[in-house]
Amino acid sequence: MPVHVARRASLLSALVAVASLAVVGCGAHPGNPVTAPAAPSTSASGSPSAPASASRTLTAEELVAAALPTEASPDAYGHPVSVRRPRAGERESEVSDPACARLLEAAHARRPSRSAPAVAEQTFNWRNDPNGGDSTLASYGNSGAVAVFAEVSDGLGACRYYESPGPATTYKGTVTVGPAPRLGDEAVQFEITAPTEGGSHVTQYTVVRTGSVIATFTKLSVGDPDLRAFPPALIARQISLLQQAQS
After folding, report:
1. Are 65 and 113 in contact, with CB atoms under 8 Å apart?
2. Chain centroid to CA 92
3. Interior CA angle at 160 toward 217 and 93, to 5°?
4. How many angstroms from the chain centroid is the CA of residue 150?
5. How far is CA 129 from CA 76, 223, 237, in A?
6. CA-to-CA distance for 13 and 196, rounded, in angstroms?
7. What pTM was computed for the model?
8. Is the dihedral of CA 13, 15, 16, 20 positive or negative?
């Protein structure tokens, strides 16, 4: 199990350098990938203008309590949720396109201008999948969550390709926007594809705003399109738990 996590960390280190430095089917394991439209669309499900009703800001403890239980997926290795703590000497990475930098920073709850008061993170690994996934739950308050989601949506309208220095080589990511899933108050989905010696690395992002919280789900696949999607049943359950926590 530690081997899976270590491998994922290495594969994703360049892709989410902004985060480290600064889906769709049904079932208990990753399903089929979402086919992106020929002309990328940045439309999001729901209404991006304002939340339908006020939802209270969640504390770090409440986010942890609302996270998926480790036994949520019988086909997954359970990992406990953890609260993100500031790291000494942490700084932003270099991303060639500013629009892509803002997109990744907002999706990973590391936007300097809109810091989240509470962030919880969780790792997922599946027995039949050597690559795993992650979730990031960030509580901003209603207006803050709406603004951060707008930064994600706006970023998708401008970001198509970026480069970022990695541990061994330059990461070259191409961004493809997929159909927006009908989740929470508003949601978007996109993929970042990068060529590597081991084959194409594809990371699928599903970003959902539900009330005052933004939940980001990422799933890595390497050369296997059938393993690209974060299990949609788990995403739906997580969003339901967040909605209950805010009610």
Report:
1. no
2. 18
3. 65
4. 15
5. 9, 12, 21
6. 13
7. 0.78
8. positive
Tens of pLDDT along the chain (247 residues) come to 443 433 443 333 443 333 333 333 333 334 333 333 333 445 576 544 444 456 789 999 999 999 998 877 666 676 889 999 876 555 566 899 999 999 999 999 998 777 788 999 999 988 888 888 999 999 998 789 999 999 999 999 999 999 999 888 899 999 999 999 999 999 999 999 999 887 889 999 999 999 999 999 999 998 777 777 899 999 999 999 999 999 9
Is residue 48 exposed (0-12), middle (13-18) or buried (19+ Cβ within 10 Å)?
middle
Q: Give the separation between CA 78 and CA 83, rounded to whole angstroms.
A: 16
CA neighbours within 13 Å on the CB side: how many for 185?
A: 23
H/E element, 110: none
Can you state the percent helix, strand and coil of the chain, rounding each to 5?
Answer: 30, 30, 45
Residue in 197, 196, 179 with CA at minimum distance from that of residue 188? 179
Distance CA 133, CA 83 (A): 17
Q: How far apart are the first and last CA of the chain?
A: 36
Angstrom CA distances, 37 to 30, 155, 178, 189, 208, stand at: 21, 17, 6, 12, 20
SS (H, E, C) 113-178: HHCCCEEEEEEEEECCEEEEEEEEEEECCHHHHHHHHHHHHHHHHHCCEEEEECCCCEEEEEEEEC
